Amino acid sequence: xxxLASPDGNAGAxxxxxxxxxxxxxxxxxxxxxxxxxxxxxxxxxxxNSGGARPGRAERLHAAGMxxxxxxxxxxxxxxxxxxxxxxxxxxxxxxxxxxxxxxxxPPALWTAAAAFRLAEGLANGGRRRALIPPAAxxxxxxxxxxxxxxxSLEPARMFTALGAxxxxxxxxFADLACAERRRRGRRVPARTLRAFAxxxxxxxxxxxxxxxxxxxxxxxxxxxxxxxxxxGEPKGRIDGVLVIGRPAFLADRLYAKLFPHYEFEPIEDLGxxxxxxxxxxxxxxxxxxxxxxxxxxxxxxxxxxxxxxxARVTAVLKDSPVSGAxxxxxxITAVNGTAVRSIAELTGAMRRVAPGDAVExxxxxxxxxxxxxxxxxxxxxxxxxxxxxxxxxxxxxxDVPDGIRYRxxxxxxxxxxxxxxxxxxxxxxxxxxxxxxxxxxxxTGTIGPxxxxxxxxxxxxxxxxVSRTGADVFFVPAGQEDEARLGAPDLTIVPAATLDxxxxxxKSGG
Length: 511
Hints:
Elements: H1 57-77, H2 93-100, H3 106-124, H4 129-150, H5 159-185, H6 191-208, E1 210-223, H7 224-227, E2 228-230, E3 238-250, H8 251-259, E4 264-267, H9 275-300, E5 307-317, E6 332-336, E7 339-340, H10 344-351, E8 359-366, E9 369-376, E10 378-379, E11 387-388, E12 391-399, E13 405-407, H11 420-431, E14 441-444, E15 447-449, E16 453-455, H12 460-468, E17 474-478, H13 482-488, E18 494-497, H14 500-508
Parallel strand pairs: 3-14, 14-17, 17-18
Antiparallel strand pairs: 1-3, 1-4, 2-13, 5-6, 5-12, 6-7, 6-8, 8-9, 10-11, 15-16
Helix pairs in contact: 1-3, 1-6, 3-4, 3-5, 4-5, 5-6, 9-11, 12-13
């Protein structure tokens, strides 16, 4: 009897009928060796929204949020670039930004949606409670960041709160991504997510690494008659104000300075005060400029008494000032050693009679009361023969502001008094039959003071460049700053003006 090879290639061993592996039949007996037993294959159960080895819907939403966040960071630093774009209804770019700022809610909204998908699928698949913590945290923090962005409309100063909430939501989104990758790929270390996190950190470091400087960049123009509208007036001409953007400089700004013109850097110490104090100062100066401009325009059109001067107001006490603790921001100096002071000019005149290092007696209005303050002096840095207090002052004005002027509050116009001259001109244009522009597209910058005096401002070169991109016919600048303005826009018609009357006379003559 021949033996047949078994299926595994081994000859069948002789077995009696009935033994395992034997068959009965008329032919030769067939025997089969049982197949060797195998350990059951262990497979990692895919987690919620795993989609096998490929990223699922939640991961793609997370990634889209990261990309949107980076894009918004760059756009925010170059927000001035689209300023000349024509927009429907006469809207200006600075007005559009009031709505576009809410795009900051897009990244956390995408992260919240991604986390919500992971939560829903985890609950549907009976996921463990611990596995649901990362998406739950990401959803909560993402929703909180969205709410913080929406709250900016109520108070622009809440921007820093919103940015903090965005940062927390970003970290939570990466944590959720890391947990999703571990379940999807079965790895203890989510290498792909960690590489993406490191790459994004590096990009953010380039974008936001502080350099210890303040950067001034070209800024934004705005239609002053859309910004301020008198109830009993009607705009006749186009009058533009212009802002520059001044902020802490980052590493990326050095790159932008090579790509775009008129970036200017200065040490942050040159401010002479903390940034928070400076921001508060410029916000107050903006309100004062608007009151002064309205009062001056109102006086010229029979709507009030104009500006009455009440003294020299302290706006800031500089570091290492000898009067630190004796004088405070908001104090109004009304007399020096018994000599009445109604303006900065009178304060300067009184201080000429004081020797550096001597102390003087100041009459100060603080809150609703009067006080006498002993104030030491020191030599001025630029003139050792001149006595100074080490303070910043402005004229304490009592403007007679006409009723019925309504202002728009632009998110990007935080503060500063440089729109004062053009605001006075725009209100005159609204209150004057036939207007004052003579059909020209007018732009300008400069503070406004008693008697219509136009004061000097910063960033004139950057402002001239911004105006040159809008097609304005003429750009008025404070007298003495026309050469600086021409550095920014050599082909623009630039006219120096010492007073509001200089501007009106030039327009009246047709240029």
